[in-house]
Amino acid sequence: MGSYRPGQTIDTLVDRAIEGARSSGSVEVDKVVLVERDIAYCKNCMACRRDGQAQPRARCVIADDMQEIYPLIEAADGYIFGTPVNMGHVTAVMKTFLERICWVFARPGSWPLPGCPQPRTPKQRKAVIIASSGLIAPLLRRFCDEATPLIKRTALDSLNARLVGRLYAGAVEKRGVEPYLSKAYALGKKLAS
Ligand SMILES: Cc1cc2nc3c(=O)[nH]c(=O)nc-3n(C[C@H](O)[C@H](O)[C@H](O)COP(=O)(O)O)c2cc1C
């Protein structure tokens, strides 16, 4: 959950998606509220990228809450990413989180360009993305939402997680969250099933 405001738009939609996922049976969910955790910037030390071990997760040298979060990410079969669109992109806390995932779960591959991240794990996973914007309506989404493509790419390249659905909750300042609740629930249900 990558919003700065627990209890507001993205948090509400992520919770609704979790409800949808849980409605599909015995699904275990770990919710990580990024802004409440101690997550430092990546240092670009590249210890993770150089880690040639065969494990699905490389070691990160930074001692912070990511050390508790990494095992949850590794154990998961699917992911719900939620972020507001700020200045066209993911929030800073979400970007920090994605940078900390990038090479820990990937190694340099050969396609589409030599050196690009490729998932360390052969385990196939799934992901859904929920993004919200204050002003821009869904019709104009493609001109302002760089958040969804970034998360989609990171999920695929680092976590081996294919996107199975996404929700863009546009113009929430005017529309509020209500019109998007049922789609969030359906997304969670789809992810779990
Ligand atoms: C720094 C900042 C930049 C923002 N940039 C945009 C933007 O580019 N387009 C937009 O429609 N809304 C923008 N917003 C509004 C947020 O997208 C909106 O408040 C958010 O989706 C609501 O999610 P929340 O209730 O979970 O915080 C911005 C908000 C902030 C604080």
Q: Give the termini separation.
A: 21 Å
CATH superfamily: Flavodoxin domain
CATH topology: Rossmann fold
Order of helices and strands: HHHEHEEEHEHH
- Radius of gyration from CA coordinates: 16 Å
What's the count of strands? 5
> Which strand order spans the largest sheet, edge to edge or round the barrel?
1-4-5
Please report the number of helical segments: 7
CATH architecture: 3-Layer(aba) Sandwich
Give the structure's gist in a few sentences:
This protein has about 190 residues and is of the alpha/beta class.
Explain the overall architecture.
By secondary structure, the protein is α/β, with parallel strands linked by helices. The chain has a single domain (9-192), classed as 3-Layer(aba) Sandwich (Rossmann fold), CATH 3.40.50. It contains 7 helices and 5 strands. The protein has helices spanning 9-22, 47-50, 66-75, 92-102, 147-159, 172-175, 181-192, and strands spanning 78-84, 106-108, 117-119, 125-132, 161-169. It has a 3-stranded parallel beta sheet with strand order 1-4-5, with helices on both faces. Strands 2-3 form a two-stranded antiparallel ribbon. Helix 5 links the parallel strand 4 and strand 5. Helix 1 (9-22) crosses helix 7 (181-192). The protein is globular and about 50 Å long. Residues 3-5, 8-11, 84-88, 132-136, 144, 172 line the site of flavin mononucleotide.
